[in-house]
Amino acid sequence: MKKLGILTSGGDAPGMNAAIRAVVKAANYNDIDVMGIEGGYQGLIEGRIKPLTSKLVENIADRGGTILKTSRSPEFMEEAGRKKALKVLKTFGIDSLIVIGGDGSLKGAQKLHELGINVIGLPGTIDNDLTYTDYSIGFDTTLNTILECIGKIKDTDYSHDKTTIVEVMGRYCGDLALHCALAGGGEIISTPEKKLNFDTICSKLSSRINSGKKDNLVIVTEYMYDLAELQRYIEEKLNMSVRTTVLGFIQRGGNPSAFDRILASQMGVTAVELLINGSSGLTVGIKDNKMIQRKLENINDEKNDRQDKYRFLEPLLH
Ligand code: ADP
User: Fold this and answer.
1) C-beta 216 within 6 A of ligand 1
2) Which of 8, 77, 117 to mutate to test the pocket of ligand 1 (most atoms within 8 A of CB)?
3) From CA 272, how far away is CA 118, in angstroms rounded?
4) For a tag site, which of 17, 146, 154, 277 has the least CB within 10 Å?
5) What pLDDT digit, counting tens, does each position of 153-171 carry?
6) Complex ipTM, two decimals?
7) Third-level CATH fold of 3-127+256-302
8) Is the CB of 101 within 6 Å of ligand 1?
């Protein structure tokens, strides 16, 4: 490996900075220079590239977001854009690249691998929607943020005997809502994997209310419902007033949890080791507490075995 580039792409996730720190430190430890590419693939196309040293990444592990900034780049989706990116990498003498991002970013990484760059991906997304890895960088921090917010909503719901619908992120993956319910944050959950219709939500609510539980949290994953419609439906059917809270972008930022920092650090070091050993076209993950690698081209092939966790909800949420 001559020179290593690193970029963050797609949605930012807490822990991306810890991954950047780990990559730079591990590369420098092995006498490899690192270039930081700002603003994801778009920044790469535009040549926004600066050297990154161990000293520059010394105090970033505890910061949310990404010091390299991130973006979504429609230009990189086109072959012409990717050819430009390749030219820029050649101009800067970068022969190896580490991409930290979600599903889309890793697909982009595969395209660069096909163009002859040595590429390793790291899963950076709060949604945990990459099935090949048990956890992605950012998921744990976001889950904790959601639980903290839900705790506050619970206090007022309890005091007023209220029911609140809370919408959490996840894109098309229910892991945030599922884990939130497993951790005690919510009584009724609806996710893309186990979607409840309006009548089922109402019947679950009414049986809870009839058994004396007057404050209830309904946790739903984003993009599933028209929330105003769901709220109106429950209010009319059960003759009660309901609140709705969309947690929104508060879920993305914040200092990464210890878990995310450690995960990101282990993944960052693993990515550098893989490149040193001559690997490319791989993405790092964690399975059963061990670092694993998968081919970038196969990231969506694995079944989401987190589905098993739904069985724990039955006794917990009755
Ligand atoms: P995330 O990485 O968080 O899933 P996106 O899906 O928006 O976020 O992807 C981030 C960027 O990755 C896109 O803006 C685009 O530049 C690049 N990308 C996504 N999908 C592809 C693809 N199929 N081929 C090439 N580049 C892609």
Assistant:
1) no
2) 77
3) 11
4) 277
5) 999 999 999 999 999 999 9
6) 0.99
7) Rossmann fold (3.40.50)
8) yes
Mean pLDDT of the chain: 96
| Whether 139 contacts 125, CB under 8 Å | yes
Q: Break the chain into its structural domains and give their ranges.
A: 3-127+256-302, 139-253
- Give 106 Cα–ligand 1 centroid separation in angstroms: 7
| DSSP three-state, residue 17 | helix
Report how far ligand 1's centroid is from the alpha carbon of 309 (Å).
29
Phi and psi at 63, nearest 5°, equal -95, 140
Could you say which of 33, 62, 103, 127 is catalytic? 127
Known catalytic residue: 95?
A: no
- Tell me the whole-structure pTM to 2 decimals: 0.97
Are 302 and 132 in contact by the 8 Å Cβ rule? The answer is: yes
Give 187-198 pLDDT, tens digit per residue. 999 999 999 999
- Which tens digits make up the pLDDT trace of 22-69? 999 999 999 999 999 999 999 999 999 999 999 999 999 999 999 999
Provide the 3-class DSSP secondary structure of residue 191: coil
Question: Same CATH fold, 139-253 and 3-127+256-302?
Answer: yes
Q: Where are the beta strands (DSSP E) in the chain?
A: 3-8, 33-37, 49-52, 96-101, 118-123, 163-168, 188-190, 216-221, 242-246, 282-287, 290-295
**How much of the chain exceeds pLDDT 70, in percent?**
100
CA 165 vs. chain centroid, Å, equals 22
Instruction: For domain 139-253, give the CATH number.
Output: 3.40.50.460
Which tokens hold the place of 55? 């000293």
Report which of 14, 21, 171, 13 is spatially closest to residue 98, judged by C-alpha positions: 21
Would the pLDDT of 148 be above 80? yes
